[in-house]
Amino acid sequence: MIFAELIRDTRPIVKLEKREDTKPGAWARLQEALSRGIVGGTVDTSHVRADVFFAELKSLQEVRALFAEKFDFGPILTDQLRTLSRDRRDRQAAMAQTIEVSIEDLLEELRKAGFTRQLKSFQAANLAAVQRMPHGADFSVPGAGKTTVALANYILNRARGIVQRLLVIAPIAAFQAWKEDAAACIEPAPGILVHGGVGTLIPDDTEMLLTNYNRVAADYDRIREYVAIKPTQVIVDEAHRIKRGENGVHGRAVLDLAYAARRRDVLTGTPAPQGAYDLVAPVRFLYPGQDHDILPDTVYNRKAGRDEDVVSAASAAISRYFVRTPKTELDLPPTTFDIVTEPMPPIQQAIYDSLIGQYRGRFKLDTQDRRKFDRLGRIAMYLLEGATNPMLLAAGSDVDDQEGFEHPPLEIMGNETVADLLLKYRDLEVPWKYKKVAALVDAAADKGEKVIIWSTFVRNLKLLANYLRVHQPALVHGGVPYADIAKTDQVTRDMEFNRFRFDSNCHVLLANPAACGEGVSLHHWCHHAIYLDRTFNAGHFLQSQDRIHRLGLADTVTTKFTLLMSRGTIDELVDGRLREKVRALAQLMADPGLVKVALPEPDTDARERAGNDDDIAAVAAMLQTGR
């Protein structure tokens, strides 16, 4: 007999014990099946990650049948298996359900439960669809009211006695929206506590707990206790952040919470920014151990995640598991794209050509060496800097750059001419993108308009803050703290956002997508965004657009996006890769309007890592071919 019990004291682990009468062949076959999840044990015991154990339940059945082996499950594991079985049964029943839910009856039930905000028709339809499922996914575009629908979903579940409280995992930038919407939607307003991390007191009567991904990972045991001690609904906002799943610290912590939650929901407007494989982690959170029943096998090949047949199969598989309100359904006013492609001035061109020459031929396209891929990611950062402002090359990454984009100053390989040019570049030339940005901001300021300038590199933002100082720019990046963690005399993100919104002398916001690409609404004050540079991260690109193009715009407003690209550089490679990813997401979500809204027309192709493996392979190809 093999004994198994679920251990919840820390991260969920299934402990297997080989009893005296266990058949050796059965134990060996089971160890082989669970090998990818074994994290400890002895000769006669194995500690297996819960997600792997539940994903391999068929292997247990095979061992039982092949070897006539008996299994004895402990009470905690038995209860969890019953919960997962109920989830599977409810999911399958929901898939087979043909009776339409009465929207009117649902809204009346919602009103009686204390929900006071009137839902828009598409929000009510989304609520009905999400309620049909045992666990739900709302992939509506930013600005469609996902927070409102999620709160309505919670209030119905609370009124029906399914859950008693709520945990929201979201970026800190979204905390204010959750607090404001909860107060505006629910009567009486629930008691809300912001979890500040390790050491935060969480009273027993806390009904709604707000936390972020970092804090869940750092204070996992207490968050799990909050979820487990009473029936709790867990909402993961901006759920694309867990796309690395068990391979990421944040994804691992969130996935582990699934075993303690009574109800689970995910929200994001960009569920698969890099391809179909990004869907695996959210589906595993919603339905632990069932993702292989839901997703086609081809989705698990990360490299094929944007192949048309893979995307089509994934889209068909998940079409009934999520709701999505596309931008075309919001009746938003139009967007325009202005692609500005210019040659670099002579010294910048010489420096960039030297970089290409220095790295050309060093990397094979079929390399599997992770160190080489990481090195190529660093080179991509150098090339992006060279195509924007060579001054960045001599300095390396800023202390406030996004984690995963760190890189040292460029190492010059004995080329003293280039070294001299880098050191003197500030005195010799102004990058064309800086001149263009200044001209655009000057023109906007003359008309009393405001502009957002996006850049990945914090040093770019800091240099531009000085270059555009006449316009008193607001500055937001990873080093500018949120109000809840700022010291008394520190400038906070909220202060900078409000200065941009309400100070008539502040004409420009300098920001990077990693810091304010989510949870921030600026559409009432700004209708023009300029991209100084972009990376391969399609989620950042789409989320940043949604800061100024969202529900609430007047019909007469046209939102403008200006893309600055240096001719013949990595800028054009990045543009092509982003187009491919946006098209794949549009196909996955059955949202063809996404391409039209998020990409310029006519359509001509030209820790976060620098890009996916296929992005980095494209960098290697560019270095080899010079194109």
TrEMBL record:
Keywords: ATP-binding, Helicase, Hydrolase, Nucleotide-binding. InterPro entries: Helicase_ATP-bd, Helicase_C-like, P-loop_NTPase, SNF2-like_sf, SNF2/RAD54-like_C, SNF2_N. GO terms for molecular function: ATP binding; helicase activity; hydrolase activity. Residues 127-289 form the Helicase ATP-binding domain. Transmembrane segments: none annotated. CDD domains: SF2_C_SNF (cd18793). The keyword Magnesium does not apply. PANTHER family: SNF2/RAD54 HELICASE FAMILY. This is Helicase-like protein. It comes from Nocardia tenerifensis. The lineage of its organism: Bacteria, Bacillati, Actinomycetota, Actinomycetes, Mycobacteriales.
